[in-house]
Amino acid sequence: MKALVLGLVAAALASATCAEARPNARSRTDAAQVLTPLEKSATDCFAETVMANPGAMNYARAGQWYKAAGVIGFLCRPEVDAMTAAHDRLFGPGSGARYFKSAYAKHLDRALAERLQPFLERKAVASAEPPADRGVPGETEAH
User: Fold this and answer.
1) How far is Cα 116 from Cα 113, in angstroms, rounded to an integer?
2) DSSP secondary structure string, 72-125?
3) Burial class (CB in 10 A: 0-12, 13-18, 19+), 68
4) Which residues of the chain have pLDDT under 50?
5) C-alpha span between 15 and 114 (Å, rounded)
6) Which of 25, 69, 79, 93 has the CA that lies 20 to 30 A from 61?
7) Interval 46-85: pLDDT, tens
8) 3-class SS at 26?
């Protein structure tokens, strides 16, 4: 009988611990309110610094967004650290690093592609300047 009671108590404690580890709908909303601005800040940093770095832009032109971000990643370290630290506080130690390497990395690929694609497309631009090898029509060279 004691074993049965102890087993039930242990099961109750284990399920309570698991319930605390998994956020409920309310805490997920709270987590989103905390994490969303931090994710945006990190993503903005990556987008701006990729555009400013020719090596990163080469990766971006090839569609290798994660590598493009990796070239300049250290410049966005404060934003990434803030995001991962907040994730650790909300979901437990180590969860921020896992989140950054998995779900956020996928988000970053899509976000960078969406933001930078217009800058990567080549556009034809009309120029009022005559080509360098031709002169202005009607002019003749005086010898």
Assistant:
1) 5
2) HGGGGHHHHHHHHHHHHHHH-TTHHHHHIIIIIHHHHHHHHHHHHHHHHS----
3) buried
4) 1, 3-20, 24-25
5) 42
6) 79
7) 999 999 999 999 998 898 888 888 888 789 999 999 999 9
8) helix
Q: What tokens does 41 get?
A: 């800040």
Inter-residue contact 42 to 83 (CB < 8 Å): yes
pLDDT the model gives residue 54: 92
pTM of the model: 0.65
Alpha-carbon span 119 to 142, nearest angstrom: 45
Q: Fill in the amino acid letter for 65.
A: W
Q: Please check whether residue 37 is in contact with residue 7, taking contact to mean a CB–CB distance below 8 angstroms.
A: no
| For the chain, the helix, strand and coil percentages under 3-state DSSP, each to the nearest 5 | 75, 0, 25
